[in-house]
């Protein structure tokens, strides 16, 4: 089962390719690659949603209608690719109904049901960002665990792309990422994060997680908000890995321009 050997860069790259082909989160791509790898096309076909083909056809119709001829070849290629994948789609085995739970089981992780952890997840969810908190053995390697938690929120492991961070640095980065748009560095759009939601999430996360922050993939406070090693398919992202005495967490904030 090579896909979950997260220290191998080739495994993370394979996950990205399968997820990109099928436009699915990383944990569903992980299931597919374990079931059908190393055939990446067959793995993508196994989890391809027929609705994605309809979406591509609507996009093609839209760009033609509005005269955007320069992107017509792109959508024609996408339609051809998705049509081919749907024809390849195997009948068995079937994907799990809940791939986010499947990845937790596969990695032997458990969601932390403590009230404080639930508060962190719920408040962060109000800003539209990804947070996973689990109960873990303190003997687990922080980097390997952070990569596993990225899978738990549908992102991609980065191995050597993590870098150490101090509590003060993590607190400053977290405050910025939750209250500012990563692409434009302006205050977050109220339509995405209701008034006070980002601040509430930031305060809760800072109290609960920042003291145990260990790893980041970059800093949103630099000249560019682009993570030095991206964990998502978004244009901009920032990830924080937390490793406490009894709990671990990962926080992922994304943005588009």
Terminal CA distance reads 37 Å
Structural domains: how many: 2
Percent of residues in beta strands: 5-15%
By DSSP (H or I, 4+ residues per run), the number of helices equals 10
Core attributes:
single chain, 257 residues, six-stranded antiparallel beta sheet, 10 helices, globular
Account of the 3D structure:
It is a single chain. This protein is α+β, with helices and mostly antiparallel strands and 257 residues long. The chain folds into two domains: 2-99, no CATH class; 109-255, no CATH class. Helices cover 47% and strands 12% of the residues. It has helices at residues 9-22, 26-36, 40-46, 50-65, 72-88, 99-106, 115-125, 142-152, 167-179, 197-208, and strands at residues 110-111, 130-135, 163-164, 213-216, 236-243, 247-255. A six-stranded antiparallel β-sheet has the order 1-2-6-5-4-3, sandwiched between helices. α3 packs across α5 (72-88) and α4 (50-65) packs antiparallel against α5 (72-88). The radius of gyration is 19 Å and the shape is globular. The model has no long low-confidence stretch (mean pLDDT 82).
Question: Could you provide a short overview of the structure?
Answer:
This protein is of the alpha+beta class and 257 residues long.
Helix and strand topology:
Elements: H1 9-22, H2 26-36, H3 40-46, H4 50-65, H5 72-88, H6 99-106, E1 110-111, H7 115-125, E2 130-135, H8 142-152, E3 163-164, H9 167-179, H10 197-208, E4 213-216, E5 236-243, E6 247-255
Antiparallel strand pairs: 1-2, 2-6, 3-4, 4-5, 5-6
Helix pairs in contact: 1-2, 1-3, 2-3, 2-6, 3-5, 4-5, 7-10, 9-10
